Amino acid sequence: MSKLGNLGARLHRGEISYDFIGHRKIWYGISILITITAILGLAVRGLNMGIDFQGGAVFTTPATSVSVSQAEEYAKDASGHDAVVQKLGDNKLRIQIAGMDTQQSDKIKAELAQDFKVDKESIAADLVGPSWGDQIANKAWQGLAIFMILVVIYLAIAFEWRMAVAALVALIHDITITTGIYALVGFEVTPGTVIGLLTILGYSLYDTVVVFDSLKEQTKDITKQTKVTYSEVANRSINGTLVRSINTTVVALLPVAGLLFIGGGFLGAGTLNDISLSLFVGLAAGAYSSIFIATPLVADLKEREPQIKALRKRVLAKRAQAASEEELVEARTGGAGEAEDATPAVVGPRHQPAARGRGRGRPSGKRR
């Protein structure tokens, strides 16, 4: 953990960094591939909508030894529709039949009681009409649309429209991947799924806004200097918040993973799957999109501005001039060194010629 903290500090100070912006085409390609897979899953398999959206009935049986597959056959024979059966605690079963006429619930309940060999009154039934299901679905879509509009307006005011567009693209990316995985896995879509989806969208925005805030602060007067380009500052912002994003994502994923794999898998609490899967997939996709999609997309949009283009040209020209001057200095230094090396060194004692007439006219120092 101390090494991770030291790494985060070095990333924040800019001592080390990874070029996320420079490799943005790779991240775009990976995201496009995952998104296409999710769209194909939605088109081929579709979403398994719960009775809250389609209408239908949910029957909860008392403790029984009947298996899940056998209960699915009983429910299909009784209703004429495919049924989703989940095993609850204490060997109880939850039988969900979507799209059925609620007026037939008493008949289906009686047949299920006969098949399960239990009293009819011991089977609990919850009914949802088709009109109620349509209303719930419409409200869910309306809530999602209002959420998106408010997000775009807020980010455009707080930051700028390019960041709002990048955040919107990242949110659509997260929604598409999450719903596509729901279609591929076949989990049931319930109001809990919608709650989980809205939750992870907020979390995705949190990570994105953190990077955007750092980017906005560091690029306040970027056109007044000629040291770094906008893309380099964006890359610095990602590296400065990278370890923080990883830490918060891992901490958030641990309890969600417990709900999904332990609660829904080992303990058989199937009702936890609808919300835990959306949270688990959405949290991972949100952390990915905030780093690899949103910020690189902002850099691409900003680099098309005339001022940012001019800044990039000035920075590259200055670097090229500095590189040429350094090469010239090295060449001069190397030439002078060679000239000095070519000068023969003086070896041995240096003899100077004796001066003629040394001591001429000088008194001898003898006393007379």
Automatic annotation (TrEMBL):
Location relative to the cell: Cell membrane
Membrane topology: Multi-pass membrane protein
Keywords: Cell membrane, Membrane, Protein transport, Translocation, Transmembrane, Transmembrane helix, Transport
GO biological process: intracellular protein transmembrane transport; protein targeting; protein transport by the Sec complex
InterPro entries reported in the protein's UniProt record: SecD/SecF_arch_bac, SecD/SecF_bac, SecD/SecF_CS, SecD_SecF_C, SecD_SecF_C_bact, SecF_bac
Biased amino acid composition, Basic residues: 357-368
Keyword Transmembrane helix attributed: yes
The UniProt record lists the keyword Nucleus: no
Domain Protein export membrane protein SecD/SecF C-terminal: 111-303
GO cellular component: plasma membrane
Region spans: Disordered: 322-368
GO molecular function list: protein-transporting ATPase activity
Membrane-spanning intervals of the chain: 26-44, 140-157, 164-187, 193-215, 246-269, 275-299
Domain of life: Bacteria
PANTHER family hit by this protein: PROTEIN TRANSLOCASE SUBUNIT SECF, PROTEIN-EXPORT MEMBRANE PROTEIN SEC
Family from the record: Belongs to the SecD/SecF family. SecF subfamily.
Subunit structure: Forms a complex with SecD. Part of the essential Sec protein translocation apparatus which comprises SecA, SecYEG and auxiliary proteins SecDF. Other proteins may also be involved.
UniProt function note: Part of the Sec protein translocase complex. Interacts with the SecYEG preprotein conducting channel. SecDF uses the proton motive force (PMF) to complete protein translocation after the ATP-dependent function of SecA.
The protein, known as: Protein-export membrane protein SecF
Organism field: Streptomyces galbus
Upper lineage: Bacteria, Bacillati, Actinomycetota, Actinomycetes, Kitasatosporales
